[in-house]
Amino acid sequence: MNHIKNSVLACLLVCSLGMSVAQNLDSLITEAEEKRIEYITATFKGTRVINGHSIESPSKGVLQLMFSHRFGPLDDPAYTFFGLNQASFRFGLDYGLTQRLAVGIGRSSGLGGGSPPPTYDGYLKCKILRQAKGNRVVPISLSLVLAASYNTDKLFKRNDGSSYGYIDRLYYTTQILIARKFGNRLSVQLMPTFIHRNFTFTPDQHNNLYVMGFAARVKITKRMAITGEYYASFPNSLGTGFYNPLAIGFEIETGGHVFQIHATNSQGLIESQFIGQTTNNFFDGATAIRLGFNFSRVFTIVRYND
Predict the structure, then answer these.
(1) How many structural domains comprise the chain?
(2) N or C end: fewer C-beta atoms under 10 angstroms in the chain?
(3) Per-residue pLDDT reduced to its tens digit, 282-303
(4) E-strand stretches of 198-280
(5) For 242-253, what is each residue's pLDDT tens digit?
(6) Are 142 and 177 in contact (CB under 8 A)?
(7) What is the DSSP letter of 301?
(8) Alpha helix (H) ranges present in the chain?
(9) Which domain holds residue 158?
């Protein structure tokens, strides 16, 4: 219990320090200077690039509903209807507490047979730097994501048939999102990521995973873009039979909606699932690739004048 409390307190402290630094930087800017600063917007259109977080988050007072689906493999499309028979999904709610701080919760389904288990998850996303030009130049946007997830699978048992305690079912994720928008068409993002797993299934899996994520978005029309995402783990840390997640996507933005369709080798829907629990090699073809989509809708709950 103590190490969980310490982890939570440390996460909150880091987030508070980040927000304090950001607010102090803003407080040094006069109203006249603020008018001459042009903050870069829409680095990514959605709060997720494909599987993982983007630098974006809901604005203050805005609630986002997100539905994410991952289908089964494409090796027998006539029988599975392109993997629909083996679909898993996540329903998420994200809310902008301030212009810099967002919170989110979600619930993922589970199907067994290698798919992610039913899981609850939650996160905090703190925006520390915003890319800007004009009177003040900031070359990048930078955010911190602190997340936790809880495996609720009743079949999650030890070899002797006894159930694991709730401590064993917890996973923690810390991410730094570093993004830059180049012109009007290209955005890139780096995602240094740390995941701690209280339980691993095989001896060669590491409890701690150190991962570097790479993502990009290329705008092809005013409302359409191509996206890509890859997470590379340190060698020999994933364990035998597990692979790095790769995804390629296409997105359409229509006002308050963002629709993303993609192909990926992971059926996981949150970081603790698609990082470290992907059991397919993307380059194995139809037996490994899964279609999926994200659909989001935003609602303004509270209107602010600032």
Answers:
(1) 1
(2) C
(3) 999 878 888 899 999 999 988 7
(4) 208-219, 224-233, 246-254, 257-264
(5) 999 999 999 998
(6) yes
(7) -
(8) 2-27, 31-35, 77-80, 271-274
(9) 2-300
